[in-house]
Amino acid sequence: MKELELKYGCNPNQKPSRIFMKDDKELPIEVLNGKPGYINFLDAFNSWQLVKELKAATGLPAAASFKHVSPAGAAVATELSDTLKKIYFVDDLELSPIASAYAKARGADRMSSYGDWAALSDVCDKQTAILLKREVSDGIIAPGYTDEALEILKSKRRGTYNIVKIDPDYVPAPQEYKDVFGVTFQQGRNELKIDEAFLTQNIISENKELTEEAKRDLLIALITLKYTQSNSVCYAKEGQAIGVGAGQQSRIHCTRLAGNKADIWYLRQHPKCLNLPFKADIRRPDRDNTIDVYISDEYEDVLRDGTWELFFTEKPEPLTREEKKEWLATFTGVSLGSDAFFPFGDNIERAKKSGVQYIAEPGGSIRDDNVIETCNKYNMTLCFTGIRLFHH
Questions:
Q1: Each residue of 40-61: b (16+ CB within 10 Å) or e?
Q2: Annotated catalytic, 260?
Q3: Does 270 qualify as catalytic in the annotation?
Q4: 307 forms bridges with which residues in the sheet?
Q5: Is position 165 annotated as part of the catalytic site?
């Protein structure tokens, strides 16, 4: 297949729309089910590159959850704790390595992952398909599917679920082209290979400690940023992105946005959250929204107006500001990556509030001294990678 006609472009009024190869070669994908659209394929191709690079860098199966051409989550396969299984709502499932990677990618920010595009570095198996079937998702890209997995996924969304198979050996041309306002842009593909050397070659802080877990998590953060709309920062822990701040004009807003997401990820592990008395018939999206409200300061209003009765069998005690503050004070060992230099130490101050201990950023700001000084104040490990990772 050399081209594929699409229903429309980014919006219904943008017609005609298609994907094709400029050199008249065959497309590297096969649509096994459904009819993916323009934005679906943007998500598919960006997310596939991310998971392929994550596996190459870590040696572990990788998965991503994409929305609007940025990752809501990305992760590699590691053993999930009972707590993480519970907050990701997979404690009733058998998880293969690739299924555990997607459970983490999907679960880190369930609000943003609603209606996602999934990407897998490995063949989609039955366990991953079972997990995907019960979530709201637009489609998936993977290098292959077992017969059982394909049968399960084809039954999703009344048989219209988008399933794309990609040739894992496909290598794109070294030059990229993009038309904007009738003008063609050309650039070399970002073929930079991100590995541990970027982390260890220039540790600029007084603290030089960089654990194996921190190296893994920093690689996950940086590779995730390579496929996130800039400006962007990424918090990572336990083999997964736990907070992605994408597309902000100010870096401090990226750091705050991603930090707030990381805080929510950790607050969901609070015993009060783990033991919320949900009604048995509550829908998964309603449950996710309710947890988000419970963690927020809005929950006091929910208690007052009585809407808690819609979701819970009994009135839960609120998670107070003091309790949240105490819980977040135990948040440690987090890694943080940035796609460009931090211009001020205020980013480090905000990162500290979300348990950040390890940081990787390009360096090169005229205020690097202030950033280094702030990291040293908190005994953080700071790596200057020398690489910028803008993506537009």
A1: bbbbbbbbbbbbbbbbebbebb
A2: no
A3: no
A4: none
A5: no
* Cβ contacts of 370 within 8 Å, gap of 6 or more: 344, 345
Rounded to whole angstroms, the Cα distance separating 84 from 171 reads 36
Q: Tell me the whole-structure pTM to 2 decimals.
A: 0.96
The pLDDT, as a whole number, for residue 300 is 75
Question: Which of 68, 86, 133, 253 is labelled catalytic?
Answer: 68
Determine which one of 33, 231, 261, 324 is catalytic.
Answer: 231
pLDDT at 2: 84
363: tokens are 């360096």
pLDDT per position as a tens digit, 77-112: 999 999 999 999 999 999 999 999 999 999 999 999
Per-residue pLDDT of 15-54, as tens digits, reads 999 999 988 889 999 999 999 999 999 999 999 999 999 9
Q: Is 392 a catalytic residue?
A: yes
- 5's tokens: 């006609």
| Nearest Cα to Cα of residue 361 among 331, 333, 392, 339 | 339
Class of the CATH domain delimited by 25-166: alpha beta
Could you tell me which of 49, 52, 54 has the C-alpha nearest to residue 221?
Answer: 54
Could you give the CA distance from residue 43 to residue 193 in angstroms, rounded to a whole number?
21
- Sites in the chain below the pLDDT cut of 50: none
Q: Single out the catalytic residue among 40, 52, 55, 67.
A: 67
Structure tokens at 46: 């960006």
User: Could you tell me the fold of the domain covering 190-267+328-384?
Assistant: Cytidine Deaminase; domain 2 (3.40.140)
